[in-house]
Amino acid sequence: MTHTEELKQGLAELKLGLSDAQVAQLEGYLALLAKWNHTYNLTAVREEARMVSHHLLDSLTLVPHLAGFKRLLDVGSGGGMPGIPAAIARPDLQVVLLDSNHKKTTFLRQAVIELGLANVEVITSRVEAYQPEQKFDVITSRAFSELAEFVRLTPHLLAQDGQWLAMKGVYPYEEIAQLPESVIMAEVLPLMVPGLDAERHLVRVVAR
Asked: What does the entry list as the binding residues for S-adenosyl-L-methionine (predicted)?
C-alpha cells in the first residue's frame, strides 16, 4: 500500500471528508517532515512509511473534537503535530504553533510557507512567556508535558469557557490524579488511530 492509499483509507476510517487538495497538503507535509528530520531531529519516527499512521492519522484523530472552536494553540508543537494536520483539515480554524526550540520553529515556518497555510502562525517562545493579543478557545498538546504541568503553564492563554485537549497514549491515571484543583477533568476519550496498534486517548480538561 502506498502512502497515499494508506492516508486515504485512514481518512475514510476517521470519516474525514478531505478534498484532494487537502490530501496533497498532508502528503507535502509528510515529505517535508521526512526530509528535515534527518537534520533537525523533529521526530523519533524515522521511517516515512510509519509517519502516516504515527503522525498524520494520529494527529487527525483530534479533528472531530474541534467542532465549534475558532482558535487553537498547539503547545510544544515540535514538528507541527497535531497543529499542522488539524490546520489542513480545518482551514477555517486559526492555529498557532508554539515551541521554544528555534530549529523546530524554523522548520514549522518553512512548512507553513511551502504548504500555503494561511491559517497558521508560528511562535518561538516559552509557553509561560507567550502573551498573545487574543486568547484561545482550545489548547492542545501531543508530547509537551504531563497534564498537571500542561494546565499549570497555560491558563493565561485560555479564553473564558475554553478547554484543554491533551493527546495521550495509555489511559493517564496517574497524570489525572495530579491535576490541580483549579481544573476539572471533563472526560477521557479513547482514540482509534487507523493502522496503529497502540492505545491513544484524548483528555478534555476545563477550568472551574
From this structure: 76, 81, 127-128, 142
